[in-house]
Amino acid sequence: MQAVIPVSLPQNSYEIAIASHNLDQIGTWMTNETTKKLGKKVLAVSNPTIFKHYGQRVIDSLTNAGFAVSHCILPAGERYKTPATLQKIYDAALEHHLERSSTLVALGGGVIGDMTGFAAATWLRGINVVQVPTSLLAMVDAAIGGKTGVNHPRGKNLIGAFHQPRLVLIDPQVLKTLPAREFRAGIAEVIKYGIIWDRELFDQLENAPRLDQIRYVSEDLLQDILTRSCQAKAHVVSKDEKESGLREILNYGHTIGHAVESLTGYRVVNHGEGVAIGMVAAGLIAVKMGLWDRESSDRQIALIEKVGLPTRLPEGMDLDAIVATLQSDKKVKEGKVRFVLPRQIGSVIVSDQVEAEVIRHVLQQM
């Protein structure tokens, strides 16, 4: 099974290619017509675990296609998504004499993709990047759309740039080595697409026997999850590349989710778990404001629980600290926090009319 999904943009269009064993075809993909003559120098960026599993396959494919390949290994984990770690990519780019025609290849999950993308956006004022996501979360979300960045100690992704990849290459086979917790984290983003855009996808997830481990997900359902999620993201990004309007809906669950991640030092919950908590909160806020019905909110909570994702705040969280952290969120406009809130499954709105008392009330419930 193969799917090629276009991301149509005024200046930086590219393709998302989804197929089993795509990893071994990266050299072919990077020399075809759609990538428009990438330079011969390539720096592959990964973490130790992913590189051990897949690094040599990527290097061999690129070398066989005529590229001169070097690599840079970064420590794994959200807590290393910092300017200090970013410096390692810059050092490698300098050491290997990368030029403006050169390409960074991000082989890894969302952390590697975000940092490599930001390095590409800023090295020599912008060089090529190819995203090769190896986690479900990165495949359906982080690798697509050109958002890149690193974390500030007081907030997630506060330092960043928009820099579109030249190609997103997805190989579903690599998910077989993904830890179950990371797979569940990716399903959180898939649920997001069901709520904001694709009711049929939400129904498919509800009807699936189990979603907590990849071995219980059929190949057909996995292909549908990847294709429908990528199509949703591609459609939204094509309409709004730099988040001036429609693209804001992709932040569903992320407002409170990012605050929880940040306040727990990126060690207690991972990104998908934060988004799950944030989606529950956004749903309850929407119910409290009379925008959404309780039955739909309960369906969302039931699906999140079915996946094995958290629906409550971690123990001991300071609710005032969460509310305060929301004020430093990237989506704050004129001092008002902007929430993505559901109206029905498959449709959401963006609102800056959520009162602090409503947020506190919902957080107390959780």
UniProtKB/TrEMBL annotation:
A single GO cellular-component term on record: cytoplasm
Catalytic activity: 7-phospho-2-dehydro-3-deoxy-D-arabino-heptonate = 3-dehydroquinate + phosphate
Requisite cofactors: NAD(+); Co(2+); Zn(2+)
3-dehydroquinate synthase N-terminal domain ranges (all copies): 72-184
Listed pathway(s): Metabolic intermediate biosynthesis; chorismate biosynthesis; chorismate from D-erythrose 4-phosphate and phosphoenolpyruvate: step 2/7
CDD domains assigned: DHQS (cd08195)
Biological process, per Gene Ontology: amino acid biosynthetic process; aromatic amino acid family biosynthetic process; chorismate biosynthetic process
Annotated residues for binding of NAD(+): G110, V111, I112, G113, D114, T134, S135, K147, K156
A Pfam family assignment: DHQS_C
Binding-site list for Zn(2+): E189, H254, H271
UniProt EC number: 4.2.3.4
Classification via Gene3D superfamilies: 3.40.50.1970, Dehydroquinate synthase-like - alpha domain (1.20.1090.10)
Compartment annotation: Cytoplasm
Keywords of this entry: Amino-acid biosynthesis, Aromatic amino acid biosynthesis, Cobalt, Cytoplasm, Lyase, Metal-binding, NAD, Nucleotide-binding, Zinc
GO MF term (any one): metal ion binding
Domain called 3-dehydroquinate synthase C-terminal: residue spans: 186-332
Primary location class: cytoplasm
Coiled coil: none
Signal peptide: none
Co-factor: note: Binds 1 divalent metal cation per subunit. Can use either Co(2+) or Zn(2+).
UniProt cross-references to InterPro entries, sorted A to Z: Dehydroquinate_synthase, DHQ_synth_AroB, DHQ_synth_fam, DHQS/DOIS_N, DHQS_C
NCBIfam families given in the database record: aroB (TIGR01357)
Stated family: Belongs to the sugar phosphate cyclases superfamily. Dehydroquinate synthase family.
Function: Catalyzes the conversion of 3-deoxy-D-arabino-heptulosonate 7-phosphate (DAHP) to dehydroquinate (DHQ).
Protein name in the entry: 3-dehydroquinate synthase
Source organism (scientific name): Myxacorys almedinensis A
